[in-house]
Amino acid sequence: MKDDDVTIGSAAWVQRSSGRLTPAERRGLMLPLARTHLTNAAGRFRLAVGLHSGRHAHLPPARLAPPTTVLTRAAEQRAREVLPVVLLNHSYRTYVFGRALGELEGVDVDAELLFASALLHDVGLVDPPERADFTLTSLRVAGEVAEQVGLSSAATETVQTAITMHYTPGVTRDVGPVAYLLASGAGLDVAGLRSWELPSATITETVREHPRAGFKSAFTDAFRQEAARVPEGRAQLLHRWGAFAAAIRFAPFTE
């Protein structure tokens, strides 16, 4: 997932490339994308036959509550100003699902930075830049929020890289716990990835608290537009080789 020592999907990569993949970068993402397909197929089969790990898991809701800080309040306020309800609720669910997977996996994560990243990761879908990856706008908005609250440069970089990395195939813990869990939470909410690892109560309660309200249709349309706008980008890769629209349609949610 690296090219010239710049990780594909990182803030530096998006700023340098505007989110356009080179042919070599595109080929490099095919293997992690294929692994995701296989993992999803196996996990969904275990879920269907009742042999999934989540059936034995338990997560007290209090452990998943976001912290209340100057940063989380500012990120939430900006998200509420920009995002339609369908994307705002997705952002909340992304945080909860990412945090829940981290709890089960024993990942030590800065919950404040994870929440801010989750609430701001899709703000660029509302007003994307011309012929550039939507996360370039999300990155800019996150930087503005970080500056507003006096966040350190290191923490700002963590949030921005988590945001720009979140839909790159194959994000691992090597890129940091915030990026890893943001990608995991978004993948679960969008396509059901790793949904078999969570207790059904956690998923049910999260969706009840933050309703999906037509999310599948809205998100499919948003990413179809992103793929058309940046044909060399990651959204187009996911649509062409990741069967992204089908993955959304068959995610284990009603809408």
Throw out a few tags for this protein:
two-stranded antiparallel ribbon, 255 residues, mainly alpha, single chain
What topology emerges from the helices and strands here?
Elements: E1 2-3, E2 6-7, H1 11-17, H2 23-48, H3 70-82, H4 85-105, H5 111-120, H6 135-149, H7 153-165, H8 177-191, H9 200-209, H10 215-229, H11 234-241, H12 244-249
Antiparallel strand pairs: 1-2
Helix pairs in contact: 3-5, 3-6, 4-5, 4-8, 4-9, 5-7, 5-8, 6-7, 7-8, 10-11
Summarize the structure.
With 255 residues, this protein is mainly α.
Description of the structure:
This protein is an all-alpha fold. It has one domain. 62% of the residues lie in helices and 2% in strands. It is built from 12 helices and 2 strands, in the order ββαααααααααααα. A two-stranded antiparallel ribbon has the order 1-2. Helix 5 crosses helix 8 and helix 7 (153-165) packs parallel to helix 8.
